[in-house]
Amino acid sequence: MTIICSACGWLAPTLLSEHGAVRYWRCVCGQWLVSEADAVTATPGNSDFAAVPTS
Ligand SMILES: [Zn+2]
């Protein structure tokens, strides 16, 4: 399984936590990555986690 940071292209973010098939990673650039099975499913930002447009 290879996780690639979508922000900087780093190939080996640090695995911080696992919940079943869901894994939480943090890159050296500060980007968080969430993967499920073998696919990255989310890349929440540092502070804009809830900044989803509602319009
Ligand atoms: Zn990165």
| Number of helical stretches of at least 4 residues | 0
Order of helices and strands: EEEE
Rounded to the nearest angstrom, the radius of gyration is 12 Å
Helical amount among residues, as a percent range? under 10%
Percent of residues in β-strands:
35-45%
Structure description:
With 55 residues, the chain is mostly beta strands. It has a domain at 16-46. It is built from no helices and four strands. The protein has a four-stranded antiparallel sheet with strand order 1-2-3-4, with no helix packed on it. Strand 3 and strand 4 (39-42) form a beta hairpin. The structure holds zinc ion. Zinc ion binds at residues 5, 7-8, 10, 27, 29, 31.
Could you give a short description of this structure?
The chain has strands spanning 14-19, 22-26, 32-36, 39-42.
Topology:
Blueprint: E1 14-19, E2 22-26, E3 32-36, E4 39-42
Residues 5, 7-8, 10, 27, 29, 31 line the site of zinc ion.
List the keywords.
binds zinc ion, 0% helix, 4 strands, four-stranded antiparallel sheet, 55 residues, globular, mainly beta, single chain
